[in-house]
Amino acid sequence: MTTPRWDAAAAGPIWPAGPPAGVDPIRAAVRGCLAAEVGRDLTAAESGGGRLDIGAIGTTAAHAVASPMLARAIADAGLVLGAARHVADPAALAADPGWRLAVVLSPWKQAVAVQLTALSPAAVTTGVVDTVLRGPRGLLGVNTNSWAAQVVLELLAAGREPGRIVLLGAGASARSVALGLRRAWPGTELVISARADAAAQELAAAAGALAVPAAELTGLLDGQAPAILINSTTWGETRESETAPFAFSFDDLLAPGGAFFDLNNRLSDLQARALRAGCTVSSGTLMQRATHACRAALARETLTLEDA
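^ Shikimate dehydrogenase, sequence as received from the core. Prediction below:
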């Protein structure tokens, strides 16, 4: 069976004419996520409240449930943060009745789906779940990362359609980014490069992209840096991760006027090099804030439905 290409069913950009002056990007991401993933209007979903207990799985789950960005998003949604816990794996998460909202992190974003009752549209498309809601119909897996990434990418593009985007990595985060990118710009040239060539090939086939081995990347570009370079790998996540070199010259992918989107929240060497090259740089912080805001709004919607 042929996998439908994501660029053939794109929903369109969040801001067709570019981000307007004074825009709230977090609110825009939440609006798009609620409408597409659960069929709810943001205004209608802004009522409600209650206590929200949180669960989490993944390598950095303990850090995630203690995040001040998550706590702020929950408070902004009019909810009260209750207990927060992290468990070992997807099976333990599904068996634990003590949470209403669950944060799913690497390495479980693709494996958790088999434990769930249903998946939202973006989760079905990507095969990636980063958020689980416990509601009256069971456990719903949602992909919020694609909406959070899309709003960052559209801000970086500033109303222009990028000629070429290079995406480093082909894991769960890369899949979410690629879907957000394709919703915004179905026709933009997308190049995917990753250490796992088979994963890059599979993602490229789904996203209407070109998969290029890392050692061949700079040769393919032939001195023409992409309009937007995206790092979805763990390179830069910690200081130790920066000791292993890429299989290509990273600086050859940078040029004045370009943009670099690093999904890592930490101020990495890659971000510093991109700034020195004259690029507009976004760390993963705005994406993380938008993701948490989407999670909180979805949780508020679930609690509102239960109270109805």
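The chain has a mean pLDDT of 91.
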